[in-house]
Amino acid sequence: MAGVKAFFNVTNKYFHLSTHTKSSNIIYRYISSTSSVPRDVDIVISGGGMVGAAMACALAHNEIFEKKKIILLEAAPERGKYILPENYTNRTCALSPATVRLLESFGAWDEIKEMRYQPVKRMQVWDACSDALITFNNEDLNDDLAYIVENDVILAAIMNRLNAAGDNVEIHYSTSATSYKFPGEIDDEGNKESWLTVNVSNGQSLRTDLLIGADGFRSSVREKSNFHTMNFDYKQMAVVATLHLSESVENTVAWQRFLKTGPIALLPLSANLSSLVWSTTPENARNLLIIPEDSFVDAVNDAFWNDNDKDPLTGRILESFSSILQNLLPVGAVSKQLPPTVIGVEEKSRAAFPLSLTHSSNYVKPRIALIGDAAHRIHPLAGQGVNLGFGDVSCLNEILTKAVGLGSDPGSLKHLLEYETKRQRHVIPVMATIDGLQRLYTTNFSPLVLLRSLGLHTTNSLHFIKNRIIRQASV
User: Fold this and answer.
1) How far, CA to CA in Å, does 344 sit from each of 142, 211, 246, 340, 349?
2) FAD-binding domain location, by residue (predicted)?
3) Which of 92, 49, 431, 383 is nearest to 212 (CA)?
């Protein structure tokens, strides 16, 4: 019996690597459909969200992978052709220039431009407890700071490009991994496994060189592979909604104000629409979801406009400090501007989701790599979460291209560790900075209010530091 199994395994591998003739296709389909015989696949990607789909699309358009077999497992059913709705949806991303470059590399950015997006040319961030603020202008970098795009539009654009690629990537909808057999485990014949086997809900077993976990912050791949993970509950919820503005304007400014309960942000969608992301306490979030529309609109405007939390002592010290700084660095005063007035909220656009920090101590193991929220999840106050995930895609694609080009095993830990090192050197400082800002700004303790106000005001006066901050967020 062992000899028969070995024959089928060798035959399956042979037909996977060879040029498919009509007869070989028939045999290959027979072997692949037999659940007791593992099907050989070069790469399995678990999770077909924005990051997982982008990983599949990057590999699909990568010439060096055109002879490889890649499978994308997507638990959701196939949605059919995407039709752009008239109304904007309430989940959006602020795509960085680096993310746009990735999307451009396989044509998804052109798809997005055919649908809709809104550039951010200026950003203003300010403190509710003082007059301290920082602004980032288009003139600082001679480029757009970011692009606000709906999640559904991003995913649709990526899937359009994936479907237009060659046949080296198969998408298995309504399918998810149910169990795994990892390298080093003992198989049915008493031998150590060299590959990783993914048992799938459709009955197949996929034996692969590399499993990429892109299955979100509750990642099954991460959990079943026993990655050590750090979790922290912020005890906050993000309230999102699509808001109507008082008048049609250019609307290319992103506004963010730090309240003592969490930051509130207004992101441009169109001339008269903006996207709200309001991080607040669970109690306030639940209240914001059920109050009448006019009360909700009043609450949003009040959160941006009221001065109830101003610290008088900090205000006086900051005013004196500003005069001294102006004499030392005569760069011109920057006046605080107020965001446009909100007059309405799109029907049924209000929603909320809990906020937490998740970080895997490692991003790789033999034949396994984690990307996106499966590896790291951060607070949305800087809009960097999905950009970090797309950065993972760019980095892993580059490293796998180099490995396969050299004839190496793409699941080799040597190459995967290079990916982990590069990404952790970028992700961990970003995560630490955002977590620190979140903790620093969710207090009205006067000494800390003064400290952060002086720091923010100083940073705003030093253009080279501001430019460096934005450049760092763009890579």
Assistant:
1) 34, 46, 8, 12, 11
2) 40-282, 349-427
3) 49
Angstrom distance (rounded) from CA 103 to CA 96:
11
Q: How many CA atoms lie within 13 A of 282 on its CB side?
A: 7
d(CA 398, CA 65): 12
141 vs 155: CA distance, rounded Å: 28
> What does CATH list as the number for 92-155+234-354+440-473?
3.30.9.10
| Beta strands 146-150 and 273-280, pairing class | unpaired
| Tokens read off for 196 | 């990783």
Give residues with Cβ within 8 angstroms of 279, minimum separation 6.
234, 236, 237, 238, 239, 261, 262, 263, 264, 355, 379, 380, 381
What is the number of other CB atoms lying within 10 angstroms of the CB of residue 191? Answer: 10
Question: Between the CA of residue 260 and those of 295, 377, 458, what are the distances in Å?
Answer: 21, 22, 21
158/95 Cα distance (integer angstroms):
14
SS3 label, residue 297 = helix
Higher pLDDT residue, 360 or 25?
360
Phi, psi of 342, rounded to the nearest 5 degrees: -90, 135
Written as one letter, the residue type at 455 is: G
**Would the CATH topology of 2-87+166-231+358-431 be identical to that of 92-155+234-354+440-473?**
no
Any bridge partners for residue 239, and if so which? Answer: 278, 352
CA distance 42 to 56: 12
Both structure tokens of 3: 């000899």
Q: Report the percentage of the chain scoring pLDDT > 90.
A: 70
- Determine the straight-line distance between the first and last CA of the chain, rounded to whole angstroms: 54
- DSSP string covering 126-138: EETTSS-EEEEEH
Q: Can you point out the beta strands (E) in 50-142?
A: 70-74, 92-95, 118-120, 122-127, 133-137
The token pair at 42 is 């070069």
CA dist list (Å): 282 to 240, 353, 355, 467: 13, 9, 10, 35
Over the stretch 139-183, which tens digit does the pLDDT of each residue have? 655 578 999 999 999 999 999 999 999 889 999 999 999 999 998
* CATH number belonging to domain 2-87+166-231+358-431: 3.50.50.60
Among 2-6, 81-85, 290-294, which is the least confidently predicted range? 2-6
Domain ranges for the chain: 2-87+166-231+358-431, 92-155+234-354+440-473
Q: How many residues does the chain have?
A: 475
User: Region 107-114: what's the mean pLDDT?
Assistant: 98
Write the pLDDT tens digit of every residue in 316-345. 888 888 777 767 665 555 567 889 999 999
CA–CA separation, 273 and 198 (whole Å): 45
